[in-house]
Amino acid sequence: KEGLNKTRNNIMEGIDKVLSTFTKLDEEFFEELEEVLLSADVGISTTMELIDELREYCKKHKITDSNDLKKFFKEQLSSHFTAQNNQLAKAVTPPTVILVCGVNGVGKTTTIGKLTNMLKNQGNKVLLVAADTFRAAAIEQLKIWGQRNNVDVISHQMGSDPSAVIYDGLQAAKSRKVDYVICDTAGRLHSKVNLMEELKKINRVIKKEIPDGPHESLLVLDATTGQNAMMQAKAFSEATDLTGVVLTKLDGTAKGGIVIAINRELKIPIKFVGVGEGIDDLKTFDGQEYVNALFD
Ligand code: GDP
Asked: Which residues on neighbouring strands pair with residue 100, listed in sequence order?
């Protein structure tokens, strides 16, 4: 949990320092706390909301003790996480269809490789579908992860229709009786309309073959890109119904306050976090655990 620990240290050291430095919960105190949250990548709007709520709580309950405030702060963060389901969906009748989207470079292919490994280790049969047909490298990369995991990859030529690959992938998944079929999709954000149309078409094809699918639409975000990741999350959530977020490269940042921002602003559960480049470096994410770790 190296990534999570770094995050924890950064945010909490900051909060602790502010809480212990300031005896009076005055204006200066709130400004310092705001500074800490912003520098941990919590983001402006979430930070403002949190600070406002803390101020209000202090006023309403005449809080002067920083420890009482800490307790409320923990509850405030927890309340959002508890409502979220961080479990990976499982179809009543296999295959479970997982769509994975995200812009290039965030770690989408690597995440699919790691997730395949995790599901295989749990005893599942997995099939991969290379529906990011825009980049030849994406197809090749997925094939490499397929070999590494010893699972088949369904692919077409670069430039072909992603929906056609998905269709073939689902046929193969059904006839080979796999448990999970993971579909890599193109992550071009240059046009939201295009993205929306492509994802819509893909969803239509899946629904026709697997009526209750896709069971997961996961968005992969790079934790080191902070507010940029938040913007991607907003764009994708407007383009399609996301069921979860995978936050990669948490090992590469001491910030990680983006976990709080995603949770507060998008209300999409973070299901996994990436904490390294290796095949085992994907961890399930539990919001409650995260908050507990922040405040322990
Ligand atoms: P894609 O373009 O979104 O498919 O991105 P890739 O999966 O090719 O990953 C881009 C780079 O990020 C590669 O060098 C990966 O090894 C690296 N990467 C992916 N996930 C993680 C992670 O959790 N931690 C670290 N440190 N690197 C990662």
From this structure: 184, 218
Q: Residue 156 belongs to what H/E stretch? A: none
Q: Is the pLDDT of residue 96 over 70?
A: yes
Residue 248 Cβ inside 6 Å of ligand 1? The answer reads yes
Answer whether 141 contacts ligand 1 (Cβ < 6 A): yes
Can you tell me the distance from the alpha carbon of 81 to that of 231, in angstroms, rounded to the nearest whole number?
21
- CA-closest candidate to residue 52, choices 264, 289, 269, 290: 264
Q: 270-274 and 244-248 as β-strands: parallel, antiparallel, unpaired?
A: parallel
C-alpha span between 95 and 113 (Å, rounded) = 18
Q: What angle do CA 29, 34, 37 make, to 5 degrees?
A: 130
Please give the structure tokens belonging to residue 125: 């049969």
Rounded to whole angstroms, how far apart are CA atoms 270 and 285? 6
Percent of the chain with pLDDT over 90: 62
Provide the residue type at 249 as one letter: K
| Any ligand 1 atom below 6 A from CB of 106 | yes
ipTM of the prediction greater than 0.85, yes or no: yes
Whose structure tokens read 């990669």? 248
Residue 151 to residue 130: CA distance in whole angstroms: 13
For residue 5, the model assigns a pLDDT of: 66
CB atoms within 10 A of CB 29: 20
Give CA–CA dist 152/43, Å, rounded.
Answer: 41
Atom 27 of ligand 1, nearest CA residue: 277
